[in-house]
Predict the structure.
Amino acid sequence: MGEKSSCVYNINYHLVWCPRYNKPILKESRVKEFLKEQIYTIAATKDYEVLALEIMPDHLHLFISASPFESPMAIIKVFKGVTALRLFKKFPELRDRYWKGKLWSPSYYVGTAGQVSSETIKRYIDANSSTH
């Protein structure tokens, strides 16, 4: 549960997105670890709380809590934009696989969860992360 100004909130988003062309670039451990670090860094900078994160070879699940002053579209735009720039900078060879600097697919999934369903989503992500 978060608090800002005169607002107390419990807004949780389940975000899923994947690389363009569903290429399994996220299976490379060095890319996966760097991406994980960047997601936590971005979250801390933007005052989001990462509740769960699972990076699969061809997509990722991010479950976060954010303030009601941020739209889900703005949140996903920050994560996708910043991580793409940083991944291209750290791993220039990725530019050979992706044209025009477009790492992520333009599509994404966003779902909202309150207190009851947030535990279900965390269990789902945690259960799947132990198998990979």
Summary: The mean pLDDT is 88. The chain is about 40% helix and 25% strand. Residues 2-129 form a domain with the Alpha-Beta Plaits fold (CATH 3.30.70.1290).
